[in-house]
Structures are given as structure tokens and as C-alpha cells.
TrEMBL record:
Superkingdom, natural source: Eukaryota
Cross-referenced InterPro entries: Aha1, AHSA1-like_N, ASHA1/2-like_C, START-like_dom_sf
A Pfam family the protein falls into: AHSA1
Protein name in the entry: Activator of Hsp90 ATPase AHSA1-like N-terminal domain-containing protein
Transmembrane segments: 353-373
Listed Low complexity bias regions: 162-181
Activator of Hsp90 ATPase AHSA1-like N-terminal domain mapped to chain residues: 12-150
Length: 374
């Protein structure tokens, strides 16, 4: 069976035990430190519940997972006190990590008795652990595909199980084999694509928004993950802990950013990059940011639109940027106008009626006078 045909059908592999081991191995490498002598780290993954599967449909690998993760963490206070606590993350899933449909929820508890020094470590853990954990969670789908994808997909170098072995070459054993031709790299396949656009208006200046979208030190505040960004043309950048990568093409502070954009996801075509143009239009008291992504593979429009809205727009809102909603009156609203009242015409004037009335009264008086004096 041809590889393209074999990879078209639905396949599924449960990898829950592997996923549990991955979380136990990777999450305990996380450690953070404060501005003083405080430090904290994940000490143990105590519980992982849920299902993790890798599926294939129409030659695409799909990660399917929804897990609850419970951790223990420890730290050292500035006065040397050992601090311990627990952390539960009710949902680590494809929908949160890749689709951005909702935010991670963290349920914290402090095991050590409270004191000013202990509370400082607790505050450090609550502030720094989420970004570090979410950076790890972004790596999970890629690790899942890299480890188990080969078990589901058949490539052109694999021998078909129903194929007939090729006959052995005839001739003397001493005949030297022809030199192997160098393998030429095939150009990346053209991807049918389209463009999407997302815009949002924030109560902030264009300068401030341009800075927080490009400054390597400020980006992690809204992506909640490590970032790489020198904000120079022809320089590479990395957002969301490596979840999005690309290269800056043009930066025109504070009005426009043009950059290549590639999602590090099993659903994104390998070697393909879209072009993200971010424009910032400042008004009197707010700035409208428009993200236009050209080159989105057909079929991924809804997913990528949700990602832009969830990770970019909601990310900025999550750190205090107020989104403005402008009200536009309906154009169908009609306005009533007063009907002009025409001025009274000359013929309708009451003056002629008054004159006639006076004449009649005078005539009556003339006839009545003789009778009065008799």
C-alpha cells in the first residue's frame, strides 16, 4: 500500500504511561529564584490522571490529551527556612495548550507555617511557576509526536507489508556496485493558504503596545513563557517558549511590525511560514492593534484565529490592558423631521369677516334708532 494511502486512514495509539513519565521527568527540572535569596523548585509530581493519545487522520497527526497534574514544591526563604507546598493543575489539555480556548487554573496550598519570610517564597512560587510550567506544557505535544509519530505513519522508505521483495541483482559478486547518487533535497511543497485578521482596541499608547509586543524583557509578562526577541530586521524571534518562531522583516515603531510566523505544532506544515503584519493605529485615548496573518493553511483558519485571540489579545488583557468596545449606531435608524406648516394664505385671513360683521351691526343700528325716539 502506498504511504499516502496508508496514512489516510484513522489510527490511534494510547501513550498515557509515557506521558506520565514525561511529566514526572520534565516538571521537576523547573526552578525559580527571586530578587533576594528566595528560591523555589518543583520537587515531585505526585499524581497524573487522564488519557493521552496520538491519532492520525488524513495523514495528519493529532494530539489528544486531557490530564490532571498534582505537584509538590519546595523552597528556601531568605532566613534559611525550608518551605513546602502543593500545587494542583486540574486541566492540561490540547485545547488549552495549543488552541488557547481557556487559561490554566492553578490551585495552591502552603504546607509550612506562615511567616513573612515563608510568605515571600510562597509569593515567588505563585508568580514564577505558571510561566515556567506553561513553557514545559508547550513542549509536550512536540515530544509526543516526535516519540510516537513514527509508530503511526508510514513513510516512503518503509517497506510495505503487502509488497513483493525486489529480485536480487544478477551478475558476478566481484562487480562493483554503482556509486550512489547524492540525495537532492526536494523543495517544500506549496501550501494552499489564506489570510485571517484579528483586531482589538486597548486603552494604551501605540508606543507602549509596540514595546510590549517586541521587547524581549516585556514579552514574557503576557505570553507567560520565555521569549527571544532582539527586535531588529532579519533577526530571529521565539515566543511562547518556542511555540511560535520566525524572523523579523520590518519594524516601524510605533506603527507596524512585519515578521514571518510559524506555529510549532503537528498541524502546521513543516517548513511553511506565514507573514504576520501587526499595525497599531493610535487614536485620542486608545490604540487599535490589527494582526493580519497571511499564509494560514486552508483548514486551520478557525484554529489560528482562536490562537491569536487567545494568546495575543487575551494575553494583553490578562496583565491589565483594558480592551475598548466602540458602539456604532445602526444606519437603519430613521430620524423624524417636522412637517413644515405653510403660512396662512391671504384668502384665509379673518379680516374680511370682521368688516362684514361691522357693516351688519351698523345697518341694524340705523333701523333701530327711529323706534327708540318715538
Amino acid at each position: 500500500m502506498a504511504p499516502t494511502t496508508a496514512n489516510w486512514h484513522w489510527k490511534n495509539k494510547n501513550v498515557t504511561p509515557w506521558a506520565k513519565s514525561w511529566f514526572e521527568r520534565e516538571l521537576v527540572t523547573i526552578s525559580v529564584s527571586g530578587e533576594g535569596e528566595e528560591e523555589a523548585s518543583i520537587s515531585e509530581v505526585t499524581y497524573v490522571e487522564g488519557d493521552v493519545e496520538l491519532g492520525q487522520r488524513k495523514s495528519k497527526l493529532i494530539t489528544i490529551y486531557d490530564c490532571k497534574v498534582e505537584l509538590k514544591w519546595k523552597g528556601t526563604a531568605s532566613d534559611g527556612t525550608a518551605v513546602e507546598g502543593k500545587l494542583t493543575i486540574p486541566e492540561v489539555s490540547h485545547e488549552i495548550t495549543l488552541d488557547g480556548l481557556s487559561d490554566y487554573v492553578y490551585e495552591w496550598s502552603l504546607t509550612t507555617s506562615s511567616s513573612p519570610a515563608v510568605d515571600a517564597v510562597y509569593k515567588l512560587a505563585r508568580a514564577r511557576f505558571p510561566a515556567a510550567l506553561e513553557a514545559k506544557f508547550l513542549l509536550f505535544p512536540t515530544a509526543l509526536v516526535d516519540t510516537h509519530g513514527k509508530d503511526l505513519q508510514i513513510n516512503s522508505t518503509q517497506t510495505s507489508r503487502t509488497g513483493t521483495p525486489a529480485p536480487a541483482a544478477s551478475g558476478s559478486a566481484s562487480t562493483p556496485a554503482p556509486a550512489a547518487k547524492p540525495v537532492e533535497k526536494k523543495p517544500a511543497k506549496a501550501v494552499n493558504s489564506t489570510a485571517i485578521k484579528v483586531d482589538a482596541t486597548f486603552m494604551a499608547s501605540a508606543d507602549d503596545l509596540f514595546s510590549i509586543l517586541t521587547d524581549e524583557k516585556r514579552i514574557p509578562s503576557w505570553t507567560r513563557a520565555p521569549a527571544k526577541s532582539s527586535a531588529q530586521p532579519d533577526s530571529e524571534y521565539s515566543l511562547f517558549g518556542g511555540g511560535v518562531k520566525g524572523k523579523y522583516i520590518l519594524l516601524s515603531p510605533p506603527k507596524e511590525i512585519i515578521q514571518t510566523w510559524a506555529l510549532q505544532s503537528p498541524t502546521w506544515p513543516e517548513g511553511h511560514a506565514a507573514t504576520l503584519t501587526t499595525t497599531l493605529a493610535q487614536g485620542a485615548d486608545s490604540t487599535t492593534v490589527t494582526w493580519t496573518l497571511d499564509g494560514v493553511p486552508l483548514g486551520l483558519e478557525d484554529e489560528i484565529t482562536r490562537n491569536i485571540q487567545g494568546y495575543y489579545v487575551h494575553g494583553l488583557k490578562s496583565i491589565g490592558y483594558v480592551q475598548v468596545s466602540h458602539y456604532t449606531p445602526s444606519s437603519s435608524t430613521s430620524t423624524k423631521t417636522k412637517r413644515d406648516v405653510p403660512p396662512p394664505s391671504i384668502g384665509s385671513s379673518p379680516q374680511p369677516y370682521v368688516a362684514v360683521t361691522l357693516a351688519v351691526l351698523a345697518l341694524v343700528a340705523a333701523f333701530a334708532v327711529p323706534y327708540v325716539y318715538k
